[in-house]
Specification:
Low-confidence stretches of chain B: 1-13, 534-546
Radius of gyration of chain B: 25 Å
Mean pLDDT of chain A: 88
Distance between the termini of chain A: 13 Å
Largest sheet of chain B: 6 strands, mixed
Largest sheet of chain A: none
Strand content of chain A: under 5%
Number of helices of chain A: 11
Distance between the termini of chain B: 16 Å
Structural class of chain B: alpha/beta
Mean pLDDT of chain B: 87
Helix content of chain A: over 70%
Helix content of chain B: 25-40%
Oligomer: heterodimer
Chain lengths: ~280, ~550
């Protein structure tokens, strides 16, 4: 354990942060056994006041409870939307990279269609059209973030296809599906895993931004909503916006560290330096 | 030749150029042995070529790097002394070493493309050698240097980028850079290993010529005893970081004293001198009028230009040629990894080219392929058992059956069945090539296409794999198309040899006929270029010297 921390410090710090955020989300109902939308006392109580550990907002809601409950929403949206966009991206990328030719062209032009539109604007548009809800937010984030995955998987497949061990499978008469599943995907996965952890970070940010603009799900407390609700009163109660913002910052930092750590860990050429 | 060289060298024998005394170089703790180089002492005189011979991992390149002061931090010099013309190199500061590199010692590396900056014109790269040593580097000097390494049209060449040159030309440029400041010591670290055999012969001649002209000392690192025979005055043999033998070239090659040297010399492939095997009447593979062209930019390259070949049952045909001759394209065309433009490949009468993927499948069992690079051809993320079992499972065997087959085939290639659950990276190059052979034979193939199967291996391992292939061929009645760039290897294992050049088979005949009486001028050049042969009569050379 100790040597792992020393060899991959980024990954250790990153995973520690993410585990802490997960723990916070999981224990929110225990420490704050009430809805984060409840008005619990007087408004604009500063952090450290007897009723409010991290202060209260303009309506007297508990910021600490909001952050703790909001953590769950952020992580869930980040995780599920990333899973979904990895699903879309890996399948389309694998298809393009393995089949090649016209299929490759079609898939890549389709991906470019998504990439040429600013992804955040498209997400706003999608959420606005389908009415803000937790599902439309997840779907919107998934739909705008798959093209980079497809590109990475396609590029990996293209270079792997020329490798001798893939040609060897071909010469043995292994079927297309088996070549893709057993030979190509496992070898293409490391960069995708790294990309995935960075995409979670991006999804957390996108969700926060959507909530900040008031396009969040009204049934779920989220960090972005908290930041947005404190925006107009920032000169009276800075903590209402700043503290949830710090939570977003730390979580995104943790995910990025984790991603970079995974990169060194999964890439044998980089991690050789870290050998004992 | 060795005699005339020693006479010539004798006149300068008195002046010692490089002295290495008790040199030890450490290794990181996780390495397989404590030291990369252990207590090595030798000296090099002016006007002398000293060959350091050894297999990969013997520490031979470490000595060169220690002299140049280019050892990485993980490989510290533990003790000893390196003395170049009275300068103790190990006590020099990095700045002092920088000024010595180039001026007192020049280096030629193995891979010329990697040694040259791809974004710099040839002339500028050579001029840089002068600039970093505070010299003007006039255009005329650079042109003279290019002329000195026998490059054509030096005036035009200085404006050219490295990728526009051939491998041999690039290596000449690297040599020009190494000798630009007339260093007394030239270190050549496997300078011809990445080159074709005919180019290798030219580069060896060039190094010899430059060394004589300037009376410099050359430390020549190689794994190839043919090259040693060609160029060396004296030889040291390295094994696992230790110097095991030291002597003049004729002593070491003719009367080796250490067992390891004897083993290495015995492992150099030799032409088969047994009675030729009778040729079967039955054709197993017949290629006719096969053509394939590639487009390189807007230039059309004929990789296969009307190839005809007739491989009989149980026969081994060696396909010999230099890089770019199209031999690998031909091999891949047979197993449908590359589709030919026109022509036929018939396997026992069936035209393989016209088959659909589904119709091909039964032939996948009967025709198998052996790849060159044992580190590249095994999936790093699957266990050895899974790798070998993939073939039988693709053809309907159950997991248990396939595993049993894998176990049996591992025994066939003399590996322990416990290898089944281990990973490819746990094995050495030779062992991995055995795994590759086991995979190819897992479905009882009748025809084996072997694409340079021993080229990436050390000479002693190469000998083992060749023996294994030969044994399996006789035991299983395999027919084999054996592709190699090394005439010596082909001469050992093949019944017939086909020589390929620029997409054409220029000559095809029984192996001993090709060796003793080559007809085509290219075949003659190729055989004359095999290192360690020149200056001896054709018959004498093929039987004894190879």
């Amino acid at each position: 354990m100790k040597s792992f921390v020393r060899r991959f410090p980024r990954m250790a710090i990153g995973s520690a942060i993410i585990l802490a955020v997960i723990a916070m989300a999981a224990t929110a109902p225990i420490f704050f056994p009430f809805s984060p939308w409840d008005m619990r006392g007087s408004p604009f109580e500063p952090p450290g006041s007897p009723d409010f550990l991290l202060g209260s907002d303009a309506l007297g809601r508990d910021i600490a409870a909001g952050i703790a409950h909001g953590a769950w929403v952020s992580l869930m949206i980040g995780g599920i939307s990333t899973m979904a966009s990895l699903g879309i991206g890996v399948s389309l990328g694998a298809l393009a990279g393995y089949v090649g030719g016209r299929v490759d062209d079609a898939v890549m032009r389709f991906a470019e269609f998504f990439q040429t539109i600013p992804s955040f604007l498209l997400a706003i548009l999608l959420v606005a059209i389908f009415r803000p809800s937790i599902f439309s937010i997840i779907a919107a984030i998934a739909l705008v973030s798959w093209p980079p995955v497809a590109r990475v998987v396609r590029a990996e497949f293209l270079s792997l296809r020329k490798r001798e061990f893939v040609q060897a499978a071909e010469v043995l008469g292994v079927s297309h599906m088996r070549v893709v599943w057993q030979t190509l995907l496992p070898n293409a996965l490391p960069p995708v895993i790294v990309l995935g952890s960075l995409m979670v970070a991006n999804a957390v940010l996108t969700e926060s931004a959507l909530s900040f603009l008031g396009l969040g799900d009204a049934n779920w407390m989220s960090w972005g909503f908290l930041v947005g609700s404190g925006r107009s009163v920032i000169r009276i109660g800075w903590w209402i916006s700043v503290l949830p913002g710090v939570a977003i910052f730390i979580t995104v930092l943790g995910l990025n560290l984790l991603g970079e750590g995974l990169q060194t860990w999964l890439n044998p050429r980089l991690s050789k330096r870290d050998m004992p | 030749m060795a005699q005339s060289a020693s006479v010539e060298a004798g006149y300068a024998m008195t002046k010692k150029l490089l002295g290495i005394d008790d040199l030890s170089i450490g290794l990181p703790v996780y390495a397989d042995r404590p030291r990369a180089v252990s207590k090595v002492s030798f000296s090099l005189n002016e006007g002398e070529i000293l060959c350091v011979v050894g297999e990969s991992g013997s520490g031979k390149s470490m000595i060169a790097n220690a002299i140049m002061g280019l050892l990485p931090r993980e490989l510290p010099v533990l003790g000893g002394k390196i003395d170049l013309q009275g300068i103790d190199l190990l006590t020099q500061t990095p700045a002092q070493l920088r000024s010595l590199r180039g001026s007192r010692m020049g280096t030629v590396f193995q891979e010329p493309m990697a040694a040259l900056n791809p974004l710099m014109r040839i002339g500028d790269q050579i001029a840089e050698v002068f600039y970093v040593h505070g010299l003007p580097g006039k255009p005329q000097q650079i042109i003279d240097l290019l002329r000195a390494v026998n490059l054509p049209d030096p005036e035009a060449l200085i404006h050219v980028y490295p990728h526009m040159l051939s491998g041999g030309q690039r290596q000449r440029v690297v040599i020009a850079m190494a000798i630009a400041l007339e260093p007394a010591l030239l270190i050549a670290d496997e300078p011809t290993t990445a080159l074709d055999v005919t180019t290798q012969a030219q580069i060896l001649n060039l190094i010899r010529e430059i060394q004589r002209r300037r009376n410099s000392g050359v430390l020549f690192i190689t794994h190839d005893f043919g090259v040693v025979r060609e160029i060396a005055d004296r030889v040291i043999v390295m094994k696992d970081g230790e110097l095991v033998e030291h002597g003049t070239v004729s002593d070491v090659l003719k009367r080796p004293s250490h067992d390891y040297t004897k083993k290495l010399l015995a492992a150099v492939p030799k032409p088969n001198t047994g009675a030729p095997r009778p040729r079967s009447e039955r054709t197993i593979l017949k290629a006719s009028h096969l053509r394939k062209t590639f487009w390189r930019g807007n230039k059309e390259v004929a990789a296969l230009n009307d190839i005809n070949l007739d491989l009989r049952k149980g026969e081994t045909i060696g396909l010999v040629g230099e890089s770019g001759s199209g031999k690998s394209t031909f091999a891949r065309t047979i197993v449908n990894l590359i589709a030919p433009d026109s022509g036929e490949i018939r396997f026992e009468g069936t035209d393989l080219h016209s088959l659909s993927r589904k119709q091909w499948k039964p032939f996948r069992k009967r025709i198998q392929f052996l790849f060159q690079d044992p580190f590249e051809s095994l999936d790093p993320r699957r266990s050895v058992g899974d790798i070998i079992a993939a073939g039988p499972m693709a053809h309907g065997a159950s997991a248990a059956e396939a595993r049993a087959v894998a176990k049996e085939k591992l025994r066939l290639v003399s590996l322990d069945p416990s290898a089944l659950d281990r990973w490819p990276h746990e094995f050495s190059g030779g062992q991995r090539q055995r795994i590759g052979i086991a995979r190819a034979l897992a479905m009882n193939a009748e025809l084996l296409i072997a694409d340079e199967p021993v080229s990436a291996l050390d000479v002693s391992v190469q000998a083992q794999i060749l023996d294994l292939l030969e044994g399996l061929r006789d035991k299983l009645g395999l027919s084999m198309l054996f592709i190699t760039h090394d005439m010596r290897v082909a001469a050992q294992i093949c019944d017939r040899i086909a020589v390929m050049k620029l997409g054409q088979i220029v000559e095809e005949a029984p192996a001993r006929e090709i060796l003793s009486n080559p007809q085509h001028p290219y075949t003659k050049t190729l055989i004359a270029s095999v290192p360690g042969l020149s200056g001896e009569s054709a018959n004498h050379r093929t039987v004894e010297a190879l």
